[in-house]
Every structure is written in C-alpha cells, then in structure tokens.
Task: inverse folding
C-alpha cells in the first residue's frame, strides 16, 4: 500500500497506424501524492496529453493502453468497465482538457452546463440547492453569480476557462488533471487562471497534474515536476531541485533555452537542433543529446535517484568505474 | 531624401463598422530606413495589434491617418508601386500550418514565391535558392523540401515561413504572433532567425506579440498597446526593466519567471474585464488601475517622457 492518490506504473499507450503501432507513451511510471501539484512538462508530441487521456481512461481508438497500470486510490482504472469509469470521472478524477474553453456548449447557459455535471452523478436536485451550489462554485473561481445566466460567447477566454475549472471541481474530485489550462490566454489572464487553479485545489485539498510546455510557468506553479521526452519520463524531482540542478541533458536544454524576462542573454543558437521524429535505440534523447556516448546507443537508461526524491534516466549518472557518483555528477554536492 | 523613413505611421485610426470604440486610436510610429530594427508591438488580445499589422500589410484602409512606406502612402500606390510594395513587405502569421497548401510538399510553397517574383532563371538556380533559404533557418533542403507540411513540427513549419519570406529579400517583415503556437523551448530558434535576418540582411521587423520574454531578447524598440492606444513605448530594455505605466507593470510582472523561488506574490484580479463604461475621453485603463486618480476619468493622458525615447501615457508622469 502506498499513500499516493495516483500511481501510474509502466504505462504504455500505442496508436494503431498502417505501418504498425506508434508508441506515444512508452512505459512511464510516476505517482501523485495528496494535495500536491505535479507538473508534467515536455514539448508537443512528447505524449503528455496522451498520458492525461490515459489516466481518465479516455484514449480513443485507434489508440489503446497496451500495458501498465493506473491506480487511483487503489482502484485499477485501466481495466475498469466504461460504466464504472463514468462514475469515477468528475467524482474522483476530473480533467480540464486542452482547449477546454472551446468545449463548452455554445447554446446552453453556464449554470445549466455545471448543473448537468452534478445531476449526472447525483441525480436531480432541488432548484434552490443547485442554484446555491453553482453560485458557490463560481465564487470559488472568482466569477460573479450572474455569469451563470450567460452563454459561453458572452464570456472572455479567461472567464470561460474559469467556468471549466468550476465544472471540474464541482464534485470535489481527489485529483484534477489540467492539460495546458492557460495556453492561448494573455499573460495577465494566464496568471489569474493559474492562481485560481492553485487556490481552489489547495482550498479543497485536491491533488493536480498540470500539463504544459512552458517550463517558466511550471516554475511558478508546481511542487514537483516530471520531464517527458518522446514518450518517456526522463527526470522527476522537486521543482526547486530540478531548477537548481537540471540533470538530464534534455531538462538542461529546456531550462536554458526558455526566453527569460529577467535575464537578457544570448544563448548558443539551437536553430540547428534537429527535431527527431523516430525513436532511436537506447536512450530516446541520444540523437539530440550533446553528451551522448556509446552506451546511450546500446542501452535504455534506467531511472536512478540522485538525491532523495530527484530521479533521472541518463547514463551520465550511472556511476561505476571511475564515474562520478550520481549526486556529485549532478552538482548536488 | 536619404532620411525618408522605411515605414511611417501617422495618427493611424481604425474603427470597424458597428463599433463605437476605435480598434486602434491615433497610432504613430517611424521605422528608419537603416539600420534595420526589430520593433515590438505588444499587448493583450483586443489591444489592436493585429489590426495594426493588417493595416501595414495593406489589408485594411485606415479610417483616418496614414501609413507610408519609403515616403509613399500605401493607400495611394499605383499598380507598379503596389507590386513593388508587396515584394518589399512580407508577412508571417501565427499559425504556420494555415499558410501552407497541405496537398503539396514544402518545395512547392517555396517555388511559388520564386516563380511569382521571377527570382530564378533556371531550375538549378531555383534549387540553390531553396537550399540556401532552408539552410538559413537551420534545416537541410534534402531533408525537408520533399516533405509535406503535416510531416514537419510547428516550429519547423514556422522556420520555413521565415525562409520563404527571406527568398524575396524584403525590407520589412510583419510577423504577427510568430511564436505563440510554438513550444517555449523552441522559441529561441525563431528569435535567432530574426536577429540574423536583421543583422546580416538588413531586414526590419514589426514583431507583434504578447510574449514579452522573446521581445526582451530581441531588442530595439517596443510599443505596448492597451485598448487600441499606446500605453508605453521606448527601448525594450528600458520598458521591460523599468515599466512605468501601471498596465505595463502588471503585464511584465505577470510573465512567468523560470525560477521556483521567485513566484508571483500578489493576487491580481480582472475586476473590470466586462467593461461596462464606454466613455473614450479618459484613460481606458483607469477602471483596472490600482493608482487611479480623478483626472484619469476626465481626460485622455498624453505621452509623457520618462527619459530618452521612453514614454508613458499616464498622468503619474505628467
């Protein structure tokens, strides 16, 4: 038994294509603990959204969960029948999908859309109770009650996104999965929406997986961070530990290449970086890695712990003959 | 006539039919002929950035004011001059996928430009041009020219758009949100391409964005718009390091810093985002402004000089 809300182990998701299965998520494992925010970061196509869909058991054909287990409070979700899974969604784990604000029904008022989520799980409610609940939910995400009577097109992007948050927390799930919840929003609105998310999850004691490509935004919001590259998780740790000692060469690239507003610097150009579309043998990152060596071609690196809670999958930290001990190599000492 | 500016926008105002408020209100800007510069126009959605871009590209006719390119009003160009203008000013848009015909390989997109402007006299020359253009943006012709748009990543597609624009050797590129659909970690590659084109080829840019981090890395001047009016302008370093207008301050403080030990402190609210008040004869930011004074509701603040070219449209600096 573990005290994690969510335990993902060896999760593999493939999409069936005419030229054989394409592996989008390749055997990843991670945990989410009660009340924490875990960032899942990586570039587009790395499998982070597929991971989100898999957690909710929403992977659609031609995709499928090929291997692995997903346990939510001890319940195995990957093999759950659709009916039971429906009961768990929203109630135990809720998703704010990418572009959620565009998935609101344009011809239904906001309050009716929130009511639908609640009644779907709890049956019909008295009007006055429902009204009170919706008002409270809107208040929690910083929206006035009158927003309930509006249609989605009458709301700004930031307001729509907050409506989606209100829906996701309506049944007080233990875990919220938010996929790029602030992309396509202006910076000020992004900040307000992000603060709203953190605020409600903290207030309700919910855990959250925050998916995104913007490592600067992750730095502002998450407790722990998992870095994903080409279907694999390459590094996991506390966010401070990762920013202080980014250890996987891919994490180092991510941390150093993000344009900053506090430091004006000319970094080495990576216009010549090759974006690689097939998965090589051995380490997934080796074709882009400036530090790749023979072993990276031959062998998939295993996860190693550098310091407690900070793990990395990279042969540079393998230790052994004359190589530095993991913590030392990562500059942790 | 050597000091005729490359681009001169004077009191450009755009009102769309059916709207009482101007999308852009009396906007002025001068870009020198040389040296080439990158001028950032920043602001939130609805601030008028894209209206401005479309007007400079000649897609919109100003309600009032004028836009001149090398001394000629672009609304009054003859046929020949218009063709010349279309060549001298190139555009790059937000969604690099929408700019391609999905049925044809990348080669086709580039060849079209070469034919349109008669850039090559032989196939061989066309091939060399294409390979050079693609190399400029860090890719290899033999790897990408025969691919279809969907086989490239968003960042690669946008880099090809820069290669395409570069083929015709324009004097000005209007880049409207070129990085907003690209992963944060790949944005640096686009910045590098813009800097290279500015410094090596003398191409000026009007860089329209809401991403202030990239603007900061790119340099030259910045203009921050709010509700169609200039809130603050000046050298990028001055404005970003010491923003004066309360809106500019909020905007810059809201850009996430990649440091978990420097997190946002204060809660911000968007209290007045539904904007019930419609009077235009006042500071449009006043309803949201933490430092609002009586006079902010009584008149439109002018541009007050801070230092050098740094100016802010705020009564605090009167």
Result:
């Amino acid at each position: 038994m573990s005290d994690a809300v969510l335990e993902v182990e060896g999760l593999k998701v493939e999409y069936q294509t005419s030229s054989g299965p394409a592996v989008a998520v390749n055997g990843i494992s991670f945990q989410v603990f009660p009340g924490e925010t875990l960032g899942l970061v990586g570039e587009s196509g790395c499998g982070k959204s597929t991971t989100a869909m898999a957690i909710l058991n929403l992977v659609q054909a031609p995709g499928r969960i090929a291997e692995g287990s997903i346990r939510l409070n001890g319940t195995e979700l990957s093999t759950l029948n659709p009916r039971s899974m429906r009961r768990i969604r929203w109630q135990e784990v809720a998703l704010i999908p990418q572009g959620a604000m565009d998935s609101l029904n344009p011809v239904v008022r906001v309050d009716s859309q929130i009511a639908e989520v609640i009644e779907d799980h709890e049956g019909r409610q008295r009007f006055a109770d429902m009204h009170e609940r919706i008002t409270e939910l809107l208040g929690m995400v910083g929206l006035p009650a009158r927003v309930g009577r509006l249609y989605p097109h009458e709301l700004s992007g930031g307001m729509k996104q907050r409506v989606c948050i209100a829906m996701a927390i309506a049944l007080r799930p233990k875990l919220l999965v938010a996929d790029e919840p602030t992309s396509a929003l202006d910076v000020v609105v992004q900040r307000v929406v992000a603060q709203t998310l953190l605020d409600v999850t903290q207030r309700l004691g919910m855990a959250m997986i925050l998916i995104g490509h913007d490592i600067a935004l992750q730095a502002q919001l998450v407790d722990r961070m998992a870095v994903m590259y080409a279907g694999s998780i390459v590094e996991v740790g506390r966010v401070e530990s990762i920013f202080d000692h980014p250890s996987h060469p891919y994490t180092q690239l991510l941390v150093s290449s993000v344009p900053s507003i506090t430091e004006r610097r000319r970094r080495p150009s990576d216009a010549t970086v090759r974006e690689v579309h097939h998965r090589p043998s051995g380490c997934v990152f080796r074709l882009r890695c400036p530090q790749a060596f023979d072993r990276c071609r031959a062998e998939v690196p295993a996860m190693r712990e550098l310091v407690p809670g900070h793990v990395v999958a990279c042969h540079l930290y393998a230790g052994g003959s004359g190589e530095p001990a993991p913590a030392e190599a990562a500059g942790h000492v | 006539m050597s000091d005729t500016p490359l681009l001169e926008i004077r009191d450009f105002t755009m009102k769309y039919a059916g709207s009482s408020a101007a999308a852009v209100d009396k906007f002025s800007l001068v870009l020198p002929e040389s040296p080439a510069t990158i001028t950032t126009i920043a602001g939130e959605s609805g601030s008028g950035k894209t209206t401005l871009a479309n007007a400079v590209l000649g897609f919109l006719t100003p309600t009032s004011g004028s836009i001149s390119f090398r001394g000629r009003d672009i609304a009054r160009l003859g046929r020949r001059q218009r063709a010349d203008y279309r060549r001298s000013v190139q555009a790059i848009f937000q969604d690099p996928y929408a700019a391609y015909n999905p049925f044809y390989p990348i080669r086709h997109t580039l060849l079209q430009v070469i034919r349109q402007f008669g850039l090559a006299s032989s196939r061989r020359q066309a091939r060399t041009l294409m390979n050079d253009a693609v190399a400029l943006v860090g890719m290899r012709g033999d790897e990408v020219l025969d691919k279809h748009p969907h086989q490239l990543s968003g960042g690669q597609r946008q880099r090809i758009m820069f290669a395409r624009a570069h083929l015709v050797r324009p004097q000005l590129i209007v880049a409207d949100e070129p990085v907003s659909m690209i992963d944060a970690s790949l944005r640096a590659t686009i910045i590098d391409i813009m800097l290279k084109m500015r410094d090596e080829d003398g191409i000026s840019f009007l860089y329209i964005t809401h991403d202030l981090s990239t603007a900061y890395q790119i340099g030259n001047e910045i203009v921050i718009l709010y509700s169609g009016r200039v809130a603050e302008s000046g050298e990028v370093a001055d404005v970003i390091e010491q923003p004066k207008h309360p809106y500019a301050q909020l905007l810059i403080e809201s850009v996430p810093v990649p440091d978990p030990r420097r997190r946002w402190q204060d809660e911000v609210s968007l209290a007045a985002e539904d904007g019930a008040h419609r009077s235009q004869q006042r500071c449009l930011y006043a309803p949201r402004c933490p430092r609002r004074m009586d006079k902010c509701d009584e008149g439109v603040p002018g541009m007050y000089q801070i230092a050098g070219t740094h100016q802010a449209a705020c009564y605090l600096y009167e």
